[in-house]
Design brief:
Distance between the termini of chain A: 38 Å
Strand content of chain A: over 45%
Number of strands of chain B: 12
Largest sheet of chain A: 7 strands, mixed
Number of helices of chain A: 0
Largest sheet of chain B: 6 strands, mixed
Strand content of chain B: over 45%
Shape of chain B: globular
Structural class of chain A: mainly beta
Radius of gyration of chain A: 13 Å
Largest interface: A-B, 22 and 21 residues
Order of helices and strands of chain A: EEEEEEEEEEE
Structural class of chain B: mainly beta
Shape of chain A: globular
Radius of gyration of chain B: 13 Å
Helix content of chain A: under 10%
Oligomer: heterodimer
Number of strands of chain A: 11
Chain lengths: 113, 109
């Protein structure tokens, strides 16, 4: 069966520090991969999605970047965190061609202080 | 632009009460519509969906009907349980999923 791993579960970082959140998927090949952010009162916002290794689409201009070094690995990064980067980050995957059937990780609560 | 709007929470109900969570969308064309649920401490999961006008999605006692004339996809359940306490997200998709802000439901015994 397919599983998705996302870590860490919680993270507290100072302003200006770097960020690396990792997400891996097991049990499937060539998934579509997504990073979402859930900010208070703003719902889920799509940040990045990827349809293959090295292929990243950015949905909103921001202080973050994403990379997909392997088929089932998706990394969210920042060189210098801002206060506004605080939020709940969710990694997700879907089968190619079936974007509505999303499987989400358990999320990372990021607090930038 | 395209968007989905759902009622703000929290919605607080007693067990066995009737639930409605409103959702309306603005989109070009005819998107598919979804309700996702996030139980405490868990990730999001698909609750139900409808892919065309007048379709009714249903699961776990929840229902939602795709109303093209009112551009709505309201979530309903006739009798809620404490275990239904969660955050519910309305969403639509064209080539990607776009979510609403979420509505927290709290059900008390």
């Amino acid at each position: 069966s397919q599983t998705i791993h996302q870590w860490p579960a919680t993270l507290v970082q100072p302003v200006g520090s770097p960020l690396s959140l990792e997400c891996t998927v097991e049990g499937t090949s060539n998934p579509n991969l997504y990073w979402y952010r859930q900010a208070a009162g703003r719902g889920l916002q799509l940040l990045f999605y990827s349809v293959g290794i090295g292929q990243i689409s950015s949905e909103v201009p921001q202080n973050l970047s994403a990379s997909r070094p392997q088929d089932r690995q998706f990394i969210l990064s920042s060189k210098k965190l801002l206060l506004s980067d605080s939020g709940f980050y969710l990694c997700a995957w879907s089968v190619l061609g079936v974007p509505e059937k999303l499987f989400f990780g358990s999320g990372t609560q990021l607090s930038v202080l | 632009g395209n968007s989905v709007t759902q009622m703000e929470g929290p919605v607080t109900l007693s067990e066995e009460a009737f639930l409605t969570i409103n959702c309306t969308y603005t989109a070009t064309g005819y998107p598919s519509l979804f309700w996702y649920v996030q139980y405490p401490g868990e990730g999001l999961q698909l609750l139900l969906k409808a892919t065309k006008a007048d379709d009714k999605g249903s699961n776990k006692g929840f229902e939602a009907t795709y109303r093209k004339e009112t551009t709505s996809f309201h979530l309903e359940k006739g009798s809620v349980q404490v275990s239904d306490s969660a955050v519910y997200f309305c969403a639509y998709n064209t080539d990607k999923l776009i979510f609403g802000t979420g509505t927290r439901l709290q059900v008390f015994p």
